[in-house]
Input
Amino acid sequence: MTETNATRPTHQGGAQSHSAQIDAAAAEKMLSMARSICRHGYLHRYVPAQPRWCRRIGDQIGLALSRQQEVHPLDLERLAFVFKNAQAQQKTKVINRKPTRGMALRLARALDKHGLEHWTSEDVSLMDAITWTTQGSA
Output
């Protein structure tokens, strides 16, 4: 396992800083999570407004990881918390969406290359919905 510069502990003022020890694959996954909830990320609209650090954590960690700077373990925990919360809010909104009149709702779950879950929904005709749900069931 290789470490990135962003994850190595350093000594500052005689005391060791508390940076997280993560490998390159984990750093890439954290960067993907940060980009998802950052200001222009696809999950940003689901990030809670309060506490205020929730709205900034994606941008801050994304910038630090892309520059291979240290990230404090508490910030990584906050990133995971905000990401999971935003993901749950997005999933709830997708599942609770009402289909257009005379249509059915088709839900789809996809995983990106880091194993992060994405939910989408689309309106389909009732006939397509019946055909789609019965394919391969016999």
Q: What stands out?
A: Confidence is low (pLDDT under 50) at residues 1-18. The helical segments are 24-37, 53-66, 73-96, 126-134. The two ends are 46 Å apart (CA to CA).
